Amino acid sequence: MKNLSHLCLLALFALTLACSGKEEKTQTSTPLSEQALEFEIYDSLVVDYLGNLTLMDISPDRTTFLLSDSNTDTLFVTNSDGEILHYYMLKGEGPNNYAGNRTGIAKFSSNSEFLIPTSRGVYSYNLEGELLKNYEPDFTSSVSLIIGGANNSVIHDNKFYTNLTGRHAEKFGHQGVEFQQNSKQLEVLDLETGSYSPLIPFPKASKFSSTEKSYPLLNFHLNLSATEDSLFINFRNEPKIYGYAFDQLDSTSAPNSVKSIPFTSFIEKVPKENSKENSFDIRDFFLGTINSIIAVEDNLFLVDFLAGLSDEDYKDANSNAGGDINKIFDEGSKFNTQGKVLFDGTSISPLISKPEILGNLNKYITKDEIWFSLNFSAAENDYSVIYKTRLVEK
């Protein structure tokens, strides 16, 4: 980790105090909808490894970094100076490996252990890569959408909250009106007992609770985030955030708060009829998409989204791709609005700008510590860099 000298730190601390005073005045006087925000690079973690490294998590004591090579799924453990302490491939059929596909990033459960969510359950490992426990669910799990780099789990009070699905498949299927009325959308794993429990039906305020129209399962893929006392969920194709108090969570929980995100444009699914079981339409990949939500505070969220393509834009993208399904995503991106905004429960900021060298947001700790991967298309290095940024007003 790059370090400043003691004197420089003092100077920087004094400057930060002065700037934060100005920033506080600016924030209170300038509406969020008018604030020009950017991610500013001020430090980095450099790892002597040639590959596409992304940061998954940082240990509670802030001394250990857990990273993954997105090309090989190899995991790396480094210290805060970027020195590689351990690396290993854990996916496979061996007795020490996890089965299925990783459905999200690994997360530290303590300073010396981490959890990996997979399509077959949750696995616990120590820093040396030794399997400590396989938390196998008591139902046949299934996953509608696998995003290995997603931050879609929460650890709170020795419990692991995850969007593992499949508990209701035998009785209600994977989608449809009956599923929408009877299923639960979240699983919580008690790390002490090893038992899974279903939580949270579709909220009444959600379109996915409809008794008349059914939605394809891709549309309600779940995003999670949390503050110290509240859990927040969002469904992929619905611009709403639902808040729940941890101490009131159960299988029938209704949200304590419902916040609608006022995007200028966000293309939502409008079913023309009840969709069939496991129905799939590539058009659904080009609807409005919430990629992630990060609860900065109870009433402030960092939201990563895609506005989606209108029918006309989708038609043009499809035409430009010449019917080649491999090209339509590249063509579609030319028509799509994508980025990150702050949302305060009422209004949203303009798109937050970032230097071209920054890739994906990997780890959010505070507004003064936000980690990004390298934009691999913008640089060619013989080492890997994870950038440390802060959110500032231009």
UniProtKB/TrEMBL annotation:
Secretion signal span: 1-18
Species whose genome carries this gene: Algoriphagus winogradskyi
Protein name according to UniProt: 6-bladed beta-propeller protein
Keyword field: Signal
Keyword Signal attached: yes
Domain of life: Bacteria
